[in-house]
Each structure stands twice: as structure tokens, then as C-alpha cells.
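Supplementary Methods, section 5.1.

A reviewer requested that the exact input to the structure prediction be made available. We therefore reproduce it here, unchanged from the version used in the analyses.
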Amino acid sequence: MPAETGPETNPKSLAIACTLTPGDLQKRLAQIRKLTAEALLGHDRNGLVLALRYAPESVEGVRAMVASEQHCCAFLKFEVREQPDVVHVTITAPENARDAADELFEQFIAADRANQ
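The structure derived from this sequence is encoded cell-by-cell as follows.
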């Protein structure tokens, strides 16, 4: 059964804003780019839902990334599902983030696009 993680609050009531300082944001983006470059096997997007597939050996890094992102981007819903051959992460943005969804999701797939 998938483990859903995220705020218990209605996501529509949460502000669409990152709570990191500019310096911390740059560090976080670098960590995400590194994880993406080293372990992302692929991704699919359907509107406000981004599905990521990571190599199974990256599970600790994926868990750490999701935990960190939940803290600073509480308006996003994260679901992690671990399987022996892949770690699935589904990120769902609320409707009120539709205009920002491209920018929000780009950080998770930019290195993957560069590898294609």
C-alpha cells in the first residue's frame, strides 16, 4: 500500500511559496539535481501530477529529498512507493498552483532531460 505523506490541511488553503532562504534554496536545488542525475530512471507528467521513477539503491536519498521538500513546500502532496526494482514518487500540486506547476516540477526533472 502506498505511503502517502503530506499535510493534513486542505492543500488549497496552503500558500504556494517556498519557505527556504535563497542560499538554502540553491543548496536544495543542487541536491535534487544530483539525485536526479544519478538515480532518476524516468518521469511522466499528467497536468498537476508528476510521477518519478528512481533506481532502488537511491531509496535513502529519495526519502531524504521528499522529507525536505515536504517541509518547505507543504502545498505539494508526495507519495512514495518502494518496490524491489524501482522507487516511485508521485508529486501532486493543488489546483491553485496550476500556473506555477511547470516551474515547480522542472526542478525534479531538469537533469533527466539533460541526459536524454
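The helical segments are 22-39, 59-72, 101-115. These observations are discussed further in the main text.
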